[in-house]
Amino acid sequence: YGGDAVQNQSMALNFQLESGIRVLDIRCAIVENRNPDPDPTKPPLAFFNIYHGIISQRVSFDQVLNVVVQFLNDHKRETVLIRVKEERTNDPARFADIFRRRYLHLYEKYMWKRNPTIQGMADNPTLGEMRGKIVILQDFARWQCPRPRRDDIPENPFPNSPQFGICYSLFATQDAFFLRTNMDLYQKWIYVQNHMAAANSCSQPDTKYMNYLTASKGVLPYFVVSGHWNPATGAARLGTGRSARRWPTTWPDFPRIEGSIYYEGTNTLVYDAIRTGRYTKRVGIIMTDFPGGGLIERIICINYEKPTPMCQRLPPCEGWRCG
Fold this sequence. Notes:
By secondary structure, the chain is α/β, with parallel strands linked by helices. It has nine helices and 14 strands.
């Protein structure tokens, strides 16, 4: 909800999960209802509603969790990671307290529990350890977590004792979300592909990578991932206004059509990079707006060393081990 400047998805949450999405970016704001109990000593009921910036998404966090729980009940070998971040409101201590008292209590059966006594599990659990569970990527109560990963900080002296899941700050994250104009789209693509290359190199096998194909602020979210005039499926491409003859080496991954350079969205650029075999080992977690079936399936198929029925249905790939 919220129009082109705010909307990031078109599929309902249950359809996203059925389509292969396994990581959600959920922004919560504190909401209070008057306590129906007449006892004035009891505090008002507090819970979370979902917002994007100041725009309500017309759903509560309880409803989000109920959809995920139903999915996990139907698919007991799956897992769903949820980044939880406070949005619109700004009361970090109370936010953590509400999460603890309400959501950790109500959904404890479905929440993955951190076990620091098992080597490696506390920060980087295996898929087997997470099956059937919601894994909270804790982007709140940040005092419990290390600082965000940065290349220029070799060691982190801060504690790592999250109460609710895995510290979001432990992910190596690319999230360059501010583009001043459409012209900045190619620089965003450079950030994206550099982060995928780092993950694919496997030089740091225990590092958890998260790569946002998205951006906003000076641009519209649908444009960043599609490169099109409007968000409609099949919408026309948007031209850069530059001639391919005059700027032959500018933005080499953008398409050339009838002598002009056109924008290309990050979803398609990543899809093509995987399809042509540029990344075949690991791409990390890909976070994006309006993902299509092709991109979702390409990412999933990287996990299989041998062709599967789903992967065989896809168009053949050059040098891709699943094609």
